[in-house]
Amino acid sequence: MIEKTVTVNDKEVKFKSSATIPRLYRIKFKRDIFKDLAKLEKSFKVNEQSFEIEDLEIFENVACIMAYHADKTIPPTIDEWLDEFDRF
């Protein structure tokens, strides 16, 4: 298990990663995290180390689920969670 606290717009955000993450991701987003991460990797290589807007949603989903895994008090939807930041 890995835990890390990162400052995002002057706000401390705790993230946690463990073997539970793929299951939590699948339950919350109805998607396979490994397929999504593979898509990000492919997009990153094809687009010369940049991402398409659609790919950023995957990044937001992964960040949200890792934050939720560390702190169950975060808002129930990703939109509400992202609204806590000026930018992410």
Fold topology:
Layout: E1 2-8, E2 11-17, H1 21-29, H2 33-46, H3 53-70, H4 78-82
Antiparallel strand pairs: 1-2
Helix pairs in contact: 1-3, 2-3
Structural write-up:
- Strands 1-2 form a two-stranded antiparallel ribbon.
- It has one domain.
- Helices cover 52% and strands 16% of the residues.
- Helix 1 crosses helix 3 and helix 2 packs across helix 3.
- It is globular and about 35 Å long.
- The longest helix is centred in the C-terminal third of the chain and has 18 residues.
- The chain is built from four helices and two strands.
- It has 88 residues and is of the alpha+beta class.
| Helix fraction bin | 40-55%
* DSSP summary, beta strand count: 2
Largest sheet descriptor: 2 strands, antiparallel
Overall domain count: 1
Placed side by side, the strands forming the largest sheet appear as 1-2
Low-pLDDT windows of residues: none
Distance from N terminus to C terminus (CA atoms, Å) equals 24 Å
Oligomer: single chain
Mean pLDDT over the full residue set: 90
Number of helices: 4
| Helix-and-strand structural type | alpha+beta
Strand proportion, as a percent range, falls in 15-25%
The dominant shape is: globular
What Rg do the Cα atoms give? 13 Å
What's this, in brief?
The protein is built from 4 helices and 2 strands. It is of the alpha+beta class.
